[in-house]
Structure formats: structure tokens, C-alpha cells
Amino acid sequence: MAGVARYLEGHVYNRLNELVDFHEKKYRGKVFGLYFTALWCAPCCGFTPALVDFYKKYGKEKNFEIIFVSSDHDERSFDEYYKKMPWLKLDYQERRKKERLAKKFKVTGIPTLLLIDGDTGNIICPDAIDQVLEDDPEGKYFPWKQE
Known about the structure:
Blueprint: H1 3-8, E1 12-13, E2 31-37, H2 42-58, E3 64-70, H3 75-82, E4 88-90, H4 95-104, E5 112-117, E6 123-125, H5 129-135
Parallel strand pairs: 2-3, 3-4
Antiparallel strand pairs: 1-4, 2-5, 5-6
């Protein structure tokens, strides 16, 4: 899996705080959502419960995994916010990695939910927030490929 691994390998952890190996079979063919967000951001805190609900309902069915990419100002806020999330996280200490990801994928504000093909690393949808909230909350057209 050259795609998501080349951007994040060695820096992503699961809920048990175990390092994720994107070369494991369970990650093949997945759509990954890079969720750029922060506890201090009111719109982010408003969207996160909807994303948690979508993920719990459709994550397995849609072969979808999310990675929390924090813009929090300190690790305490990061940890507090992550308690509300059932998915993976980019290590908070990787501030430069977070900045490089934001620059590479042209993330200019938060919240942003960028969907990428886990195998190729190609962008599928540059920001899926409207789809989750309003346009397709049941994920009928997931992963919302951009033409």
C-alpha cells in the first residue's frame, strides 16, 4: 500500500495507542478520510458527532477509515478531543507532518474531511463535509468521487 502509507507510515496510532501498519491486509482497498479538525474550532465540534455517527453506521460497509489530523494548540486539547472519536489518529507530536499534509492536500481551513484512496494515495473527494451533513448522509454515493 504505497498510497496512504507514504504519507503517514510510522506516525498513526489506533484507539489502543498501537502503531498502525498500513501494509496489513485489513487496510487494502480502503478509503481513508483525513479529518483536519481541532477542539477549539466550534464548527469542527459541531461536525464531529455527525461524522462519528456516519463512521459507526457505514465505516465497515463502505471500507472507510478515518485519521484524526489535529490542529489543536496543545496535546491536552488533542487528547480531550480524541476521546470523542472512534478512529485512528496522527501522532500529535508530528506537527511538521501535519503541516506537510495540509500543504500537500491544499487544506486551508478546518474542519476538512479529505478522502483519499488508501492504495494509490489519490484524492477522491477534497472535502466530504457537506456530503456527510446534507448531500448524502446515508453514504449512498460514497466515496463521492469528484469528476
